[in-house]
Write the structure tokens for this entry.
Amino acid sequence: NLGARFQDIFKKVRGHGKLSESNIKEALREVKMSLLEADVNYKVVKDFIKKIQDKAIGTEVVTGINPGQQFIKIVNDELVELLGGTNSRLTKGVRNPTVIMLAGLQGAGKTTFAAKLSNYLKKTGERPYMISADVYRPAAMKQLEVLGKQIDVPVYFEEGSKDAVGICERGLEKAKEANATYLIIDTAGRLHIDEHLMEELKDIKKTVRPQEILLVVDAMIGQDAVNLAESFNNALNIDGVILTKFDGDTRGGAALSIKSVVGKSIKFVGTGEKISDLELFHPERIASRILGMGDVVSLVEKAQEAINEDDAKSLEEKIRTQQFDLDDFLKQLQNIKKLGPLGSILKMLPGVGQIGDLAPAEKEMKKVEAIIQSMTKEERKKPEILKASRKQRIAKGSGTDVSDVNKLLKQFEQMKDMMKMFSSGKFPNIPGMRGK
Ligand code: GDP
Ligand code: MG
């Protein structure tokens, strides 16, 4: 009913103000839990929370959202920053081919990624070429060959050879002959990091001088990803990270930890077993995945766009001095409408899974709008002058009944009473909704 919506507008007004230690306390705890649940390194979480707290306190809350939501937006922006801000692209060498060397543990998804990347590059007009330098796993070369055939990308390999460095050397020549623009080198992995594996990778690096060494990491290993990335980085000085199996339950905490601890950007994420299941790494998407906050962030952005700060200030003043009239009420309704259909707004809020049919609420909002629009300026300012004949005219003009007009007036009066209580400080405190 309309009364509930009045309350909503109310909350928005109450939320208008600055973020303070008390009104972010709850939200701060939620964020901390989200980060830990997303498997972000504990130390990273601690530093992050401290930073956010310092930043949030004193921030103005935009009208149309509550402090908690405003806070989530701050957290999100900071997360995006921490994840590297924008997407970091692949380097392109001055001479062809640009050599990209893959490294990582066995089963991380290197071979799959080699094919995914080749496919991606091919679609952007490049001429990729692949080398399989996995001389340990039986059938590893065959696996890449099969994938190469599927996407029509040539693969160099030497069946039965144990000379990974030699394969890379000869493969590079072949790629040059073939006029390839990118050469992707798939390497062997181990179940754990060992000296021999690292030495071989270092030798390959020395021989082919890659523009990019990409560490392929299974996102599902969570916390271990950080140590892994550190070891590979110490040995090889990697240029970026690929997170695979991002289609599972993982919430992406590893991504945040790697970036913060190792300082290397994530460039792509693998989102499935198919060759096309590859996405550029988008810090914004990962941030909202880590926070698990639905689309609160875009809600806040919408509110920021829709609601003019000056309007909000004068509204607050009117409530305080009890001059809020039907015109102001109409403006508020229109602000809510600017945010989009009620359903889509509610869907953006976390925890609001299934919502019932909102058509009646939207219909009623339209009705109220029509009624107020059928009033004269004077009537909107002083609804008490509305007697039977005026009400009849308004009902007719808005295509409603006199009973609808009466209902609106009654609810408006109730709302004004609530505002009186609020502005005199008699309104009970709602945790997390405190304004100034
Ligand atoms: P490698 O040992 O590092 O070369 O790993 P593989 O490329 O052979 O992949 C190991 C397994 O992980 C295979 O079954 C792949 O299909 C699977 N895999 C690779 N990337 C992804 C991904 O992004 N999502 C999912 N769900 N599976 C993947
Ligand atoms: Mg492999």
User: Anything to note?
Assistant: The chain has three domains: 1-18+307-436, 21-57+65-87+283-294, 98-281.
